[in-house]
Design brief:
The complex is a heterotetramer of chains A (156), B (154), C (380) and D (387).
Chain A (H helix, E strand, L loop, with lengths): L8 E13 L1 H12 L3 E5 L6 E2 L17 E3 L2 E10 L12 E8 L6 E5 L7 H7 L5 E6 L10 E6 L2
Antiparallel strand pairs in A: 2-3, 2-4, 5-6, 5-8, 6-7, 8-9
Chain C lengths: L4 E8 L9 H16 L8 E6 L10 H5 L9 E6 L2 H13 L5 E9 L6 H6 L14 H16 L3 H15 L13 H5 L3 E3 L2 E2 L8 E10 H7 L4 E10 L14 H12 L4 H4 L2 E3 L5 H10 L8 H6 L16 H4 L6 H14 L13 E8 L5 E8 L1
Helix pairs in contact in C: 6-11
Chain D lengths: L4 E8 L10 H16 L8 E5 L11 H4 L11 E3 L6 H14 L5 E9 L5 H6 L13 H16 L4 H18 L14 H5 L3 E4 L1 E2 L8 E10 H7 L4 E10 L13 H14 L4 H4 L2 E3 L5 H10 L8 H7 L15 H4 L3 H16 L13 E8 L4 E8 L2
The chains are: A mainly beta (156), B mainly beta (154), C alpha/beta (380), D alpha/beta (387).
């Protein structure tokens, strides 16, 4: 049989529908976002304030039942400017994903940084610094999703 | 506590490109030319269909193709009249294992034609050992369903 | 090789579909078993879970998602994709190696978040041949059932009696998903799904979060008065293309032989007190009786009719109601094992067998027409 | 600890865009190679461990069914291990425990991936749940860029220095790959080419990132008794370690990366290693991104935190350096995900048995193999020795 570099290729696209249950804690967290509140929870054992809100502490393995409104301002721990796009990407590039330590919390909250021109990486690099203060900017129309916060924007 | 919370629809969409490799490429080319290709294992002498690159029992490499018969006997069948994900054709359809003449394994394909339109017809006309033959589509694209289905030989 | 491996305790959710959060359910189940056994999360040796990406709510690399909910934060753990009895055995191997005193085994599957099992099992197919013909697990089972009927004269009535027996047993099982007493006529007149299979012969799609704490012999004895020991295990894989196999001569016999040899069982029909068999399609229970050596080839239907596998029979099968009553696809093997555990311990509540249960068999299968089987034997 | 466990052979495929074969045929290449290389008969194996990254990468679920025949697993017990990117090392660890438990004497372990048949980043996105993190995590590069920034910020390493060291790493590895017959990308790179390459996720540029490869790797794990009977050059498993942390990316620190530190520590403790930089002769670190490789040097105790860039620039971890890392070219040049970690183990085994050919580190007796997975969440380490 002759050897070739490539043979027949079948192209296909699968679409598999799932339906995910938020459960009580995420439901309450997203209701909070609708009202411009960011909820976290405090673990009674290690005293860490976790955000988003939790039903259990992953380290202490105890149940958590409280909801604490946390600050909407925080410090940038890390950030990344995304310049490439792939199939089904939910946020379109360019965008800046960031880990933000909201004031008074003990873990990093993952969201976007924005509110300025992202087209030039050099400009972005001069604008965004680790350790800088940012605050949440809300969308006018809220749907009870993580994107009710439009992004975090540098505090002047 | 309230027991009904929100849910989120999460549809996973993923694109794929499956490399058929040499053997299925040849098998598909065979279908396009109106042939069903199998392979003979030099070790156990079994004729396997579709064509294989190796014998699943002996693990001998197979690189010769043989054209196999378009006729055979029904080994087993399942009838469905509901559409489902991955349905090969509009329902109703009949999936079957068919032992093509001169081969040593069962070929998975569809039954159809000859008034096999409802379950009662099929139950009356199709039994274990019923002789069937391939009915081909006019337009062949080099895929499994170039054979439209196998229909009873009357 | 060190001492024996014991099951210390179990926790599991009922199979009914809920709108609870996936991670909450994992957390509660793990916490429950640890609390029952009096073991702190920090003291768990290793965590082995079972889940499968397509049966996992649309999140791949499933165990990343529930790693911390599954009590595994900063632990050495791993995961089996597919059959949950694999996870049980892998955890047992880790203990037998002498590396760990305890192991937490998890099975997670939230059926309510997934599409139909038929859609998901269609993705087992190869893209070149069987996928184009539309194969899925139900079609494969239908083809298998017709061959079974043709070759051995198994009747529709016998197949329906499996459903009647198992769903009757399920009425007494608080963890069951389907709770509905049915008669043979109900099964026979239920809707045709894929002729020759009717809807009541096919298992539902259920939720199932299950956790099991294993420990090496001396630790198990410290943690509980009633450890249940792993006695034997076997698993075996069959060839892939459906048409290359004899669907009635599969690999369960081989898996069972490995398990019996390891457990020193010579006469399974006499030595096994209860069997929990994975029968996603009712007739398969009859075929699996034969492969497990409970009766001769082709005699599965008659064996059932003899009453031998009823609750008061000589080898009761599926006192829990089996997979027909509860089908959390990936976790179902561990649910079988859990029922065996409860029966051996005498803690099966209303469905506790009216005899001393020393040895239990748990069976798991996945793949088309039983492409892969696993068998575990546990005992007091 | 359990019984001693040996690795008696391995087989790797040629890597690249392998559209010349179907997926099972690709797996078969690796399996056939390990039996050919060792002269062992497939009938003699007691069981099979199989794994890929998420099944959805290639659109076939529970691939152990699909591969049953080529894995030579028909009629045998099988385990299907999958732990995201760390699958390869998890497979090797499964093989280790199976033998160490005393339940088997010879086990075939196979990892594979055909990344070009799917969309790797689209698949990777499905690792992340759709209600919170998926919006912000731009596939694997996004995660690793954030980790890099966190790391360089935490230790005050100047961006320019990180860039310079990363450039050195990628130039070295793409050059090393020429000596590895199985490697995918082999290229003479210049600093300008690397530094001015297209930005993927700032600060990561094209040559900081591993490719999408199709490939498979098969290995045979054996008990001491079996290894003696076979009489093959064997690498011995001296230590295994694995650790994972929270799913939520922001919950744990990724600079002083505890699960990486713990995985290495478990393996070192078992192997009795006190000073890894001195005692190890070679390390096959899982390096899908240049920056991450350096972070691992620190987490694995090859150097102090914040020190890796300087040492890279001094050549400490290059082929001729004190502790050669990824002489095979590593993941950076060849990345069939489900096989990648197993490739690391296979390479370390080749090194400590003196069979690595053109990229052999002379006299290597103790090697480390590693893989990482999840949302920057899992690390697994295996230590192999020549005796």
């Amino acid at each position: 049989m002759e050897k070739r570099a490539e043979y027949d290729v079948i192209t296909d696209e699968v679409a598999i529908p799932y339906e995910i249950a938020y459960g009580p804690t995420w439901t309450r967290f997203f209701e909070g976002l609708k009202n411009e509140k960011i909820y976290g929870s405090k673990c009674a054992k290690c005293n860490r304030v976790l955000v988003p809100a939790r039903s259990y502490c992953p380290r202490c393995f105890v149940e958590i039942k409280n909801f604490i409104e946390v600050a909407q301002e925080g410090t940038v721990i890390s950030w990344v400017l995304t310049e490439y796009e792939y199939f089904g990407m939910p946020t379109k590039p360019p965008f800046i994903g960031a880990l933000i330590k909201l004031d008074g919390t003990d873990v990093n909250f993952l969201h976007l940084i924005g509110g300025f021109d992202l087209s030039d990486p050099e400009h972005v690099r001069k604008t965004v610094k680790n350790g800088m203060k940012v605050k949440a900017l809300w969308n006018d129309e809220k749907k009870g999703t993580i994107m009710d916060i439009k992004y975090f924007t540098p505090v002047k | 506590m309230q027991k009904d919370y929100n849910t989120l629809e999460n549809i996973i969409r993923l694109p794929h490109k499956y490399a058929a490799g040499p053997t299925f490429t040849s098998f598909y080319e065979g279908l396009r030319a109106g042939k069903i290709l199998g392979s003979t294992c030099p070790n156990c002498k079994k004729v396997l269909v579709p064509a294989r690159s190796f014998c699943p029992q002996c693990h001998a490499n197979l690189d010769e193709f043989v054209e196999v018969a378009h006729q055979g006997e029904v080994v087993s069948w399942a009838y469905s009249d509901k559409e489902f994900f991955g349905s090969p054709v509009e329902p109703p359809f009949i999936t079957a294992l068919i032992r093509l003449d001169g081969t040593d394994c069962d070929f998975l394909h569809l039954l159809g034609g000859k008034g096999l339109s409802n379950l009662e017809d099929v139950q009356a006309k199709v039994k274990k050992g019923t002789r069937v033959k391939a009915v081909w589509n006019e337009d062949k694209i080099g895929r499994m369903l170039d054979i439209k289905y196998f229909e009873p030989v009357s | 090789m060190t001492s024996r491996v014991g099951i210390v305790d179990i926790a599991m959710t009922p199979g009914i579909e809920t709108k609870e959060n996936f991670l909450d359910q994992v957390f509660w189940t793990c916490k429950e078993v640890l609390d029952k056994a009096g073991v702190k999360r920090e003291d768990v040796g290793t965590v082995i879970s079972a889940s499968s990406d397509v049966f996992h709510s649309g999140m791949s690399c499933a165990n990343s998602y529930y790693w911390d909910a599954g009590a595994a934060f900063l632990k050495n753990g791993s995961r089996q994709d597919g059959e949950s009895l694999f996870a049980f055995m892998y955890a047992a191997m880790r203990i037998l190696s002498g590396s760990y005193d305890t192991a937490l085994v998890l099975g997670v599957c939230k059926g309510s978040e997934n599409p139909d099992n038929d859609l998901l099992t269609h993705l087992y197919t190869d893209p070149f041949y069987q996928r184009q013909v539309g194969l899925n697990e139900t079609i494969a089972a239908a083809l298998q059932k017709r061959e079974y009927k043709d070759r051995y004269g198994i009747t529709e009535n016998q197949c329906a009696q499996v459903v009647v027996k198992n769903l009757k047993n399920a009425l007494r099982n608080p963890y069951a998903h389907v709770k509905m007493g049915v008669e043979v006529e109900d099964v026979l007149s239920s809707e045709v799904v894929m002729d020759p299979l009717k809807s009541m012969e096919c298992a539902p799609k259920s939720e199932g979060f299950i956790a099991m704490l294993l420990a090496k012999e001396d630790v198990a004895r410290k943690l509980t008065d009633k450890p249940v020991w792993l006695k034997g295990y076997g698993s075996s894989m069959d060839t892939f293309y459906l048409g290359d196999r004899d669907l009635l001569e599969g690999q369960l016999k081989n898996a069972a032989k490995q398990a019996y040899d390891m457990a020193g069982i010579a006469a399974p029909g006499k030595e096994i007190d209860v069997a929990e068999i994975c029968e996603p399609y009712g007739f398969q229970e009859l075929l699996w009786y034969e492969d497990l050596g409970f009766c001769e080839r082709g005699q599965g239907g008659k064996f059932l009719e003899s009453g031998a596998t009823q609750m008061d029979g000589k080898i009761p099968v599926n006192p829990s109601g089996g997979v027909l009553a509860l089908n959390p696809y990936v976790s179902r093997g561990l649910y079988r094992l859990a029922e065996g555990f409860l029966q051996v311990r005498g803690q099966a509540g209303e469905r506790q067998l009216d005899k001393k249960v020393n040895t239990a068999l748990a069976h798991g299968t996945h793949g088309f027409a039983g492409q892969c089987h696993a068998v575990a034997i546990i005992g007091s | 600890m359990g019984r001693p466990v040996a690795i008696v052979g391995s087989g790797q495929t040629r890597h690249g865009r392998r559209f010349d074969v179907s997926y099972p045929e690709l797996v078969k290449e690796a399996v056939d190679a390990v039996f050919e290389n060792t002269g062992i008969s497939p009938q003699d194996i007691d069981g099979v461990v199989s794994g890929t990254m998420p099944s959805m990468m290639e659109g076939v679920a529970l691939t152990h069914f699909y591969f049953a025949d080529v894995l030579r697993s028909v009629g045998k017990p099988i385990l299907k291990t999958e732990t995201c990117g760390s699958t390869g090392v998890s497979l090797a660890i499964t093989g280790y425990y199976w033998i160490a438990s005393g339940l088997a004497d010879l086990v075939l372990v196979v990892g594979s991936e055909k990344m070009n048949e799917g969309d790797s980043q689209a698949t990777m996105t499905t690792v992340v749940e759709p209600f919170y993190q998926r919006y912000f995590i731009a596939g694997a590069p996004g995660v690793f860029s954030m980790q890099c920034q966190e790391w360089s910020n935490r230790f005050g390493i100047a961006e320019e220095k990180v860039r310079e060291a990363a450039t050195r790493v990628t130039i070295d590895h793409h050059n090393d790959a020429f000596d590895n017959p199985y490697a995918h990308i082999k290229k003479k790179l210049t600093p300008d080419e690397v530094n001015n390459a297209r930005i993927i996720t700032y600060p990561i540029r094209l040559w900081d990132v591993c490719p999408n490869s199709d490939g498979a790797c098969a290995m045979l794990f054996a008990s001491e008794k079996m290894a003696k009977k076979l009489g093959l050059k064997s690498a011995w498993v001296k230590g295994v370690g694995y650790s994972g942390e929270e799913y939520w990316f922001g919950d744990s620190e990724k600079a002083i990366w505890q699960c990486a530190i713990d995985a290495a520590r478990q393996a070192y403790d078992m192997a009795g290693i006190k000073n890894p930089r001195k005692e190890l002769d070679v390390a096959e670190v899982y390096n899908p991104f240049t920056y991450q490789e350096m972070l691992y040097y620190e987490c694995f105790g090859f150097c102090d935190f914040g020190e890796a860039c300087d040492l890279v620039l001094q050549g400490v971890f290059s082929r001729e350096g004190e502790l050669p890392c990824d002489p095979s070219g590593g993941t950076l040049c060849t990345n069939p995900i489900g096989a990648t970690g197993l490739n690391r183990v296979a390479e370390a085994a080749l090194q400590v048995t003196g069979q690595a050919g053109a990229h052999q580190i002379p006299g290597a007796k103790l090697g480390l193999a590693h893989a990482m997975g999840g949302v920057d969440q899992f690390n697994g380490v295996m230590i192999l020795g020549s005796e």
